[in-house]
Amino acid sequence: NSQQQIVIKLRSYCVCLPQVVLEARHEPGYCAFYEECGKNPTVAGSLLPPIIPCLNYSRVCPMLDRGEGSTTACCSIKQLKSLEMSLMLSKAVLMRCPSCADNFAHLHCINTCSPDQTTTINVTRTINITTLGIVKEAVVGYQAYLSTSFADKSFESCKNVRIPATGGYAIATMCGRYGSALCTAQRWYDFQGDSSNGLAPLDIDFRLIPEGVTEGIPDGIVPYAGRALGCNEMTPTGAEVCSCQDCQASCPVVPSPPPPAEPFTIGGVDGYLVLCVIFLCVLILAFLLFVLSTYLLRKEEGKDSEKGKGKGKGMDKNGNNVSERLIEPWEVTCTDKNSLATQEFLGSGFRAWGTLVASHPLKVLLASAVVTAAFATGLMHIELTTDPVQLWSAPNSRARIEKDFHDKHFDPFFRTNQMILTAPGRPGHFYDSLLFGKQNFSGIIAKDLILELLKLQKKIQNIEFWSNDLNRMASLKDVCFAPLNPSNPSLTDCAVNSLPQYFQNSVANLNAKVNMTELGVTKEVDWRDHFIYCVNSPLSFKDITDLQLSCMADYGAPVFPFLAVGGYENEGYTTAEALILTFSLNNYPRDNVKFKVALEWEQRFLDIVQEYQKSPGNPFTFAYMRSLEDEINRTTVEDIPIFMISYAVIFVYIAVALGEYTSFSRILVDSKFLVGLGGILVVGCSVLASMGFYAWIGIPSSLIILQVVPFLVLAVGADNIFIFVLEYQRDARRPGEKREERIGRVLGNVAPSMLLCSLSESVCFFLGALSTMPAVKSFALYAALAVLMDFVLQMTAFVALLSLDARRQDGNRCELACCVTVKTTAPTKPNEGFLLPAMRKYYAPVLLHPVTRVIVIVVFIFMFISSIYLMFYVTVGLDQELAMPQGSYMLEYFKYLYAYFEVGVPTYFVTTKGFNFTSIAGMNATCSSVGCDPFSLTQKIQYATEYPDLSYMAIPANSWVDDFIDWLNPGSKCCRLYSIGPNKGKFCPASECETLSSLFEYWILFITFEPNTQTIKLRKSKVTCVSVLLATRFMAYHTALTTSKEFTAALKIARELAHNITLSMRSIPGTSQDFEVFPYTVTYVFYEQYLTIVSEGLFNISLCLLPTFVVCCLLLGMDLRSGALNLLTIIMITVDTVGVMTLWGIDYNAVALINLVTAVGISVEFVSHMTRSFAMSIQPTHVERAKEATATMGSAVFAGVAMTNLPGIVVLAFAKAQLIQIFFFRLNLVITLLGMAHGLIFLPVLLSYFGESVCVRACVRAWARVNQQISH
After folding, report:
1. Which Pfam families match (predicted)?
2. pTM
């Protein structure tokens, strides 16, 4: 957009002064001056070429045309040609609003050519000029009188004309120091009439006279009061009204977007809180009524017992009423029979299997090793996914499809290497500019710092290194983003955005100074004047100072101020608090040889920046960045040792905790170091087998799988190991029973419980693989198979290992030194250890006391309802800085980014094929200039930018269609065909020919030509052009986005806007119904998941919960009540976990979802073992059965799950990555503690109240009596 040429440029020629002026006759019919006298010696050179086209009078000043033979004027044909050329410059921008351009030309036509010129013009200064030996008196200054009504209406018609490429106003460059915000009609005209602005050929003193005022006006002068057009009026020549984007009066009535939904309230109070409080009160009241009614019923039954009316029930050891009785055979239902048959089948099957494996341990170990090795060989083909796009965005997701479409038709979004520099504490200064008045410059906007930045910039630009991939020296030009010369770029073609680019990275331009005169005042102008002009007119080829420097970057594109400076308010660029330096590199595919070259260049960039940061002469405080992905991958790899330490701690605990330690002399005999090691190896082999299998079939892995899956399988495997080993240690060998038979019998007792948990978890994870998120899907697949393989190896290899260890222990041989035996014999009484007696004697009785039971239920109901309330306020998303490790240089960069960036990421509105851009209706539906649809694509985006807080759109889209229309417009002299000569009918540049061609086939020429002074506004289009109309894009800018919530909301609003545009464009005749407009920016592919992650998370977790209920019911013989209580407890653990996430600041995202799926699996370990143990107990009351389950199985679960996980989790607190600290340490700690609390506190109490009343083992006894009776 030709911003310095918007002002009327009447060439640098003076006009000759006729005799009538000397007599000062201000009468109609007299001219004040006539003809051109030559160049004004007081004004510097011109941008205009000397060659001009022919024209007719009405074409330049139609308001003065009175018809052939009736038109008189005070200008010659030569003047008229100069006037047309001068007006052409303003039309390049102002023709977006024809009435504005008409009003602009109107005044200058009146001043230059009106036949009544002397009635509005008063010549004030002349000089003598000698041309070809002839001395002529030339006018170099005059007063122009016009009414305020004409001036104000002209100004009103132009003040809102926009420059779409920048989002700014054209008037900003036509008002000098005042910009668009402070511009008035008088200031507008003053700037136009100031010859020192580098554009006006002579001084024009515009006098704006209110209606009826005559004081101070020379005799005969009548202020010009012609009719100025409103911006919503057609011009006399038939040009249409200005577009809505440029004229508020032309805008249709667009209703304001609805404000964000108000929070849900009831009576002015948080509605969710009210509902949760009501629900809490209802549940607690219902439970208390249940307890009271049960107490009263039992009390009445006690009275009946005293009277002899009933069978005495008695009291148990805890003071609880004994309400159960022995089950009679005829009371055994079909469900009970099924349960009995299931337990008998599983028990006998595992008993036989355990005996067989224990009898042939070496063969089983060999077979297990062979099978594991067969699976694990697939690891040779393993593929680790490190690309965040492939990791978190499904290939068939909308954002991924749109990204692939964009990258196919346009270049992928470039890689960014950026520095944000500040100089805190450095004092600023005031600068009294000749052109722009008094300006406040911050400490960072200082010449010495700019020169220092330029020095650093050039050092980075000159990076060179040997590339083995290219087999030659590589530099920035090999990998840089070069929008104007992508095929063979030089260093100066590379897109580097910074403040020194306003000076073309030239020290000489920065040091340039010149004396300049404006309004009779002469002052020195320097880099500060040029900077002030350029940040307000970044597309200018020449500033308005006598420095005459360009504002364009050396690579040929503009540097918008928000890319050069930051930390300013409104448009106060001189008060900016930060300088921004950005290097843009091409984003090559990973299989492209230049991808590695780009990575190497970025590493050299980091090395230079970090070295500079430590240098003693560095005046800056700054932050910097390169690829986020590289930093994430680097820190993730660095934290792998932390996970290894975590696993080592778990191994040491298992090895120590499994030992019996009956006496000091038998420590080495009774220890279970090798058994613990074997258990760890079983877990490791199951993970390797799972990874190898999926590598065989081509499902990639990821670092998160390497970190989480072993941890999960270790939790599951350790629990099963403890249950099996502790049951074996607590069991006494029966008379005449072999060691192998004992192992088989113990396995028959505990393996159904192990199967229950393992199968529930495996099915849970397999169903979790239905997730659309690649990371969640691959994790679920790997975890499901690993858990299944872990169970298989435990039933084979671990049973064999235990058999070998039992053989060693029975022979009193020491571990690790099997040849050494001890004389101390093993005690005959089974070793219960410390935990089982403590829980049986102290913990279970206290927990199951009548008062404690009530308190426990009430507390856990309160926790559950509170967590439901907190679920509504969990933060969804993952802020970028959380992906970085503590101490990462990227954290400082994000801090600077959020503090100093004024505009967010660019976003493209991309159109697919199927739309007819060649039709008038098609072009009108996408443009925003005069004659365009007020609800066109670009106009709707413009409406959105008027509500940035709701739309997250900051700068409207620039339209290549608008630029193409301007290029074809005869008023802008852009697109032409040769009209004569050997090239007749062929394309010629704007500077050479004049015949208009609006043929659409010349759009190829439009996107490939090199812009010049008359077509400068098209340069931005060249950067963002189209790909043969298979796709087009229109670039806008988001507001500065800082949080996941804002990024997600911006995506949602942009999609809604694009959908609205799609529907309106499909209504254009000839448009395909599969045509679509979609928004795209580099961040959408990462934040799309948060639009659906809540619903998808609920779906995935529900799928995981389903098998825990189904498998529990099936393996307990259709015991629906136990399955329901089991499911309820797991649900409560999951909900409470989300509630604690809200309190502890853990965001809900894909990583959290993986851990919540894991939480369901770990919860099964805490809950299902306890549920089955309660169901299999033969104690006479609910409370006694709960007590037995708590003591026997609870101790094993505590030792096997809780105490296995906790030490390893604590180690993760020392990880560098915040992701691991938050989503693995915090979240897994919460999951483990809540699982332990619910499994060992809440569930026993819940079962004591609502557990199945008919115990399976009682059924077994009753059914056995029936069978005996039948046999007899």
Report:
1. NPC1_MLD, NPC1_N, Sterol-sensing
2. 0.78
